[in-house]
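Here we describe the complex-level prediction in full. Unlike the single-chain runs in Section 2.1, the two entities below were treated as one system.
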Amino acid sequence: MKTRVGIMGYGNLGRGVEAAIKQNPDMELVGVFTRRDPAAVTIQTEGVGVYKLDDCKTMQDDIDVMILCGGSAADLPWMSPEYAHFFNTVESFDTHADIPWHVDNVNASDIANDKTSIVSCGWDPGLFSVARVMTGAILPAGKAYTFWGKGVSQGHSDAVRQIPGVKDARQYTLPVQDVMDAIRGGAMPELTAGQMHTREVFVVCDDDVTEDDKADIVEDIKTMPAYFEDYNTTVHFITEEEMQRDHSGLPHGGFVIRSGGVGPDGKDKAVVEFSLNLDSNPEFTGSVLVACARACHRMNQEGSYGCKTMLDVPPAYYSPMSRDELLEKMM
Amino acid sequence: MKTRVGIMGYGNLGRGVEAAIKQNPDMELVGVFTRRDPAAVTIQTEGVGVYKLDDCKTMQDDIDVMILCGGSAADLPWMSPEYAHFFNTVESFDTHADIPWHVDNVNASDIANDKTSIVSCGWDPGLFSVARVMTGAILPAGKAYTFWGKGVSQGHSDAVRQIPGVKDARQYTLPVQDVMDAIRGGAMPELTAGQMHTREVFVVCDDDVTEDDKADIVEDIKTMPAYFEDYNTTVHFITEEEMQRDHSGLPHGGFVIRSGGVGPDGKDKAVVEFSLNLDSNPEFTGSVLVACARACHRMNQEGSYGCKTMLDVPPAYYSPMSRDELLEKMM
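The structure predicted for the assembly as a whole is:
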């Protein structure tokens, strides 16, 4: 019996989820739900329909888990509590500070309807949260560091695009290698995000931009509060063709490194590291969401209702393997 | 209310567990249980008694979780099913092929007595199993590789010590760097353990060993079936003083790397890596066991009885933090 999945929202992440479902023979795509005109949306899976968002409400018996592929700023704060009334849901809400509030909202819908949701799935929050919690419990006399990159930050790219004279922009976040190596060696410094990362920006200018204007653009970027002012930032001006050729992907990645002391007086070092290197951030996140959908369906079938995060999910629940197979092949 | 822990077996691992308990304010050591004469065993925790093994059976009301620190070959196969009649237990059984059989044995004791056990805890099996299962579920179109080292293999060191003329020996397992880098780059070759690792052996000879004898020892090591014959092995002869000075620790570590394809036709690469670098293998394993003891106690309090592995444990259960704290600080 396959897990029957719906996808709500068909942008980069929704397409990543669709591709991941194809890789999992125990999962089946049942429908894609969109705010656009369904007739104008072409999907990659033959024989599967595209519907308006609220058409899903008539399809509750056909869908085991709805994967919500909206954005964290404008979509998921209302979408997740709303559709958790009707479906088990999985999503990737990633505004870290608002997660407690979001979990409460979604939980209320779940509990009222015997549904299960797993929110804030993906890699950070998600896999990185799991790594931080497990390594934190194992090495209490230690310190964890999260590095992001090398990868594209869409929020920072968008912020640069707002500057007058900028036609297009791509921002990469990079971890500082020396700092990372020191931590791997057991150092436990106090660090700001700006000391752990640098930023690199590629900019395409409007046609009428002068050299003086470019100097202003560099200044505007480097001094932008919150986004750039606390970071060592490098700006490159490139052509539209170069942008298209060299910067059209959405790579990302990162590292969670926890270093701590074990043994008598914590005198012996232990360093645990979890890292990702991704050609495509949304496609990988889609793959995580599909594994979470499998877990969500199982937890619901077992009567474990309410809003969860990946911190609440036993690893075995993500896997298509039986318990016997896992013990035999994966331990 | 602290989790009250007993330690059964007081070798390197038992001492590692004791040190880890001291680092966790919510855990308390209640007693150490030994097959030796308790009067001859000195422990590091003031005010805690040392007892004969079966004295524990009169202390069931005082101990929430018994951590079994015996060996996988001779101790845990009988010790774990025996003491799971009386206690929630946590241990580090690491004979991979026998894990399904061992889980069944321990489970029978647990279920008959409303107890919970978590077996095969540590890093491999344990954390590495979790990494293999989670990354396998997320990247089904991929391949996982487990590398061990650089670290001391006690089994291989013992095997060399059996060779006539060898007074002492230490064997290090090392991952092959080039192979690891190729996999990090997305390659998915078929590899044997011997292609992924080299072995380095340090030998102290008996006083009467000649140069010819040394050549025989090298030959005996390099051709030893199962242990060395399939590996590129280097042998160094050193003095007793050098052994003492440079090789008295028990460092270890390793890497689980899964590389896979995501997106349409799996054309985009994703590489996930989990790694450890440990000054002391038994002390780190002891720290994992203590986090597992916390999880074991909780699962038992919730009525989740039977024999589990780390694949069955939600990450939050390892942590001393409340759910609210985890959502606020760790996601």
